[in-house]
DNA sequence: CGCTACGTTGAGTGGCATCAAGCGCGGTGG
DNA sequence: CCACCGCGCTTGATGCCACTCAACGTAGCG
């Protein structure tokens, strides 16, 4: 079907993924990028912002993870199929297709890729645990502050910040589904953050006005991210 | 320091872990089992119930994962150190020590163990994502119902249910920190569940009175667990 | 027997949801 | 060109779910 890409015994890295992309496809916001079914390809987010999306039968939606450029959309789905989560585009997205065989050999992870796969899963686990703390124990205000601290750290690590600003591309409705609140309340909390001089969010673009104060409001400790991100950079 | 246990080229399985335990230690409830520092051993929960515990500076606590007998406490910490989560005993616990070298070779996962490590991390991710949906989008009542559905499935899979009952060993305060609510409200919700004939919880023991109704109240779909659990059983 | 942890219950409060209306904007088609 | 519409955002009014505070009963335990 497709060419098997040799890995030349090199350890797979996050940046090295791009060389494995065989074909790129473009998606408008709100489109579904990956369903639960596992196909012939792994999907690398080349640009844009995507979200891991869980739907309840009555329409409630929770986004359980944000996928940034350079990350894989469906690594988890390869390892554990039949999980009812899909990946949706939160902004205009470009997706790169990587042949499954470049990372997997039958159902096993190729040895050259194991460290990478483990690191990716570990990073996802770490971020998700922090989100659990947010949803369980932080107020809407703290939660919002914490999310933007996290996003700045992650986007800065991949060179996608512009000073203290960055484009998100996602709407307030999407933010609400990340933070477990309603879009109405997202609007109000953003207004408070702006009034307090911490953060401005408008036209899908965020500007951090006072980074120290924002971190303090969120009780943000970026250590949890640096560990996972640096180990295999 | 300690003997290196040969793995005889066999794939590591969850049950196979027990043969690697070199020493067992006993802990009272509320004791800290594992700190973030990674030591010479991996810790297998032999019996009891443990929780992955995140503390905020003002005392708020969120438990981001429950560890059941047969699971490893600190696999994640081996892969990504310096994460500020500790593992605490929620009931009396017996912990088995497994030499790090049985699973890791310097900082790499031993090839014979990679599938197991990946499966464990993937299972953790799956459960955690479902908890995010609970905390973000389900009411306290639904959340509680969903947790007990999940626990019954997981405990049943390892033969630790007794009909429709099972011992948890954890208090309502612990339940509150799992579910992101106060212990006062836990008490009230449990009373409602009992009045509705779905679930009884007393003396740290749960009895599911109407499994179908409980699943319906929680909109519970056990598929997400079966995948992860069966793959390497 | 006092102490501490756990659980229950009541009264009052508040954070966030819900409902509803209105605005601005970009896209689309007549 | 403009009417129209859908979408995103904002704002106000109202209500409820869950928190807070507080008191008390109970059980296990040193």
UniProtKB/TrEMBL annotation, chains A, B:
Gene Ontology CC terms, in alphabetical order: cytosol
Source species, domain of life: Bacteria
Annotated keywords: DNA-binding, Transcription, Transcription regulation
Residues in HTH crp-type domain copies: 138-212
UniProt GO MF annotations: DNA binding; DNA-binding transcription factor activity
Any Pfam family the entry gives: HTH_Crp_2
Keyword hit for Transmembrane helix: no
Record protein name field: HTH crp-type domain-containing protein
Organism: Methylobacterium gregans
């Amino acid at each position: 079907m497709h060419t098997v890409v040799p890995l030349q015994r090199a350890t797979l890295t996050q940046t090295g993924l791009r060389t494995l992309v065989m074909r790129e496809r473009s998606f408008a916001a709100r489109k579904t990028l990956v369903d639960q079914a596992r196909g012939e390809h792994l999907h690398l987010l080349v640009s844009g912002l995507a979200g891991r999306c869980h739907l309840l039968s009555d329409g409630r939606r929770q986004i359980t993870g944000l996928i940034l450029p350079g990350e894989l959309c469906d690594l988890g789905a390869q390892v554990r199929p039949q999980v009812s989560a899909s990946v949706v585009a939160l902004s205009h997205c470009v997706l790169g297709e990587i042949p499954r065989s470049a990372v997997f050999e039958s159902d096993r992870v190729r040895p050259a890729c194991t460290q990478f796969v483990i690191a990716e899963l570990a990073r996802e686990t770490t971020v998700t645990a922090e989100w659990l703390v947010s949803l369980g124990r932080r107020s809407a205000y703290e939660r919002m502050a914490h999310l933007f601290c996290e996003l700045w750290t992650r986007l800065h690590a991949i060179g996608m910040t512009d000073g203290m600003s960055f484009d998100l591309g996602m709407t307030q409705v999407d933010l609400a589904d990340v933070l477990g609140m309603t879009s109405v309340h997202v609007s109000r909390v953003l207004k408070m953050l702006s009034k307090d001089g911490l953060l401005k969010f408008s036209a899908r673009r965020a500007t951090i006005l006072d980074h120290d104060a924002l971190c303090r409001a969120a009780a943000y400790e970026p250590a949890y991210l640096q560990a996972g991100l640096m180990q295999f950079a």
